[in-house]
Please model this.
Amino acid sequence: MSKSLGSLLLIVLLFAACDYKPRNQGRVLYERNCQSCHMESGQGLGRLLPPVANADYVVENRAELACIIRHGISGPIEVNGVAYEGEMEGNLQLTDVEINNLVHYILVDLNDQKEHYVIGEVREQLVKCSQGGK
Amino acid sequence: MSRSKWLLPIGVVLLLVSCGEELKKELPVLGPYKVVDEVVDGVFVTDTMFTTIRPFSFTDQDGNEITHATVDGKVYVTDFFFTSCPTICPKMKQQMLRVYDAYEDEPQLVLLSHSIDPIRDSVGRLKEYADKLGITSDRWHMVTGDRDSIYSMAKHYMIAAQVDELAPGGYAHSGAFLLIDRNKQIRGIYDGTSEDEVDALMDDIQWLLNE
Model:
């Protein structure tokens, strides 16, 4: 009895562990930090809030994404041919690893990018914007 | 023993049967009411009088004066928001936009969004916001007005809204959508950030339009 309970527990734990892929953490982080403005599938809202899914700006500015997430962005930008103004606040509460997983989710899942995003790449970017000040 | 053995399955069957019925579609009137005793045709009767939404006057994104007369005899959905709100408002507007799109050809339905930030949300700023959202003032009024009137109206609709320096954006407010019938009585309260609840709202709108 206790043996079967133990194996059941193990299976549950295994499933829970499987869910803890970087990408899944990225999705959870997206839901917590980004979704209220960029919407559940990253589609944005009219000309008020830019999309982050299938968005040319995201793909073209791959090297800036980590800093944008951490420090925010303001002023006019163009996404998929539409001009957006306004301001996005930074997310200083997110760690380097969390930003890595978030960017990974945005690039791979929301923009179908094949090339993976690695922690080294994110750290390099974040060092730049922590020194120069953005 | 044998009797109690059957109780559970019978209960389950009864529950399923009762859930299977279309129980819905008697939308209650919500809000404060008074019980009134009166004499009608010589007969003593007791009646329940529900509060109706009181008169108001605000200005929408095109500078039109929007009053209780604007929604006379119409069904309307109302909420409170502000354009620089960083938290729940975009979701609320996304969901309200679904209602707007679904009732494109329905002149009997009006949408009325109040800004709780009249200092920043001028008519011009509401116009810009509405344009970017892609909506027009003939069916969706985004109104601003005297601060105290807006807040007292929110309270009248039973919606929480207040200045809160600690809240993101400077205001704390509820994301509720209220459904008001042709007699200016509140018939439903929904979470305006939830797709499921807004689906239910649209069912109820249809029901009220057919009432």
